[in-house]
Amino acid sequence: MSKLVTVNTVSQLAFLPNVFPVNCYLVEEQDGLTLIDTGMSFSAKGILQTAERLGQPITRIVLTHAHLDHVGGLDLLKEALPDVPVYISRRDALLLEGDLSLLPEEPNTPIRGSVPTKVKTRADVLLQDGDHVGSLLAIAVPGHTPGSMAFLDTRNRILIAGDAFQTRGGIAVSGKVKPWFPFPALATWCKTEAIESARKLIELQPALLAVGHGPMLEQPIDAIRRAIMEAEAAPSLVQH
Fold first, then answer.
1. pTM, 2 dp
2. What percent of the chain is predicted at pLDDT more than 90?
3. Is the pLDDT of residue 240 over 60?
4. CA of 53: how far to CAs of 48, 56, 58, 67, in Å?
């Protein structure tokens, strides 16, 4: 079961939207579609069918981070689209390879969540903060994972934030447990880094917030501000 919602240049493809929503995004560019995240392995067929329905080829695959619910469809998509380049942050490229070790400068907190151990595909392009992928500005947002990235469509200020926020169960900064959907918080590496990243993203003044789990949120600034305050004030199961 999936659901497609399009706003301006961005289409959200939500798998299992009423149970455990896992979102992928297709961003329209002049040369085709940029796919952001690949969902689970069962998502690959639906992603390809949706691209066909939108009438454009997928020309690049971009990953917000390396948890399995965001990279699970990668191998199957790469089999179908062998010439399409894959982008991920330089930092989370290590997680994509199954390497859970921390860098010396990082908080000494174990990396959480479903890090892949059997994904064969490796990234073609390693992203850093400030890089551009078509019309998208890449923004480093460590917290959920050490190398999480968000992507701002510079044409319309739509922010595709991965798991830096969730909207399922109520908007929350990564690491803030929402009882109706606690899973992003429980898979978050470092709460303090996540809050700093949320502050960084609100400064971009997004017109729409699109996340990995939950519906898109228009005019999200006030809601993001409240979510940051809640994350700062609330105890959490996540350390740091």
1. 0.96
2. 96
3. no
4. 9, 8, 12, 27
Burial of 137 (0-12, 13-18, 19+ CB in 10 A): middle
Place of tokens 């880094």: 193
Enter the tokens of residue 190. Answer: 């470092």
Burial 95-125 (b: 16+ CB within 10 A, else e): bbeeeeeeeeeeeebebbbebbeebebebee
- The interaxial angle of helices 191-202 and 221-233, nearest 10 deg, is 160
Name the nearest CA neighbour of 5 among 14, 69, 36, 48: 14
Rounded to whole angstroms, the Cα distance separating 134 from 34 reads: 8
**Integer Cα distance of 185 and 240 in angstroms:** 12
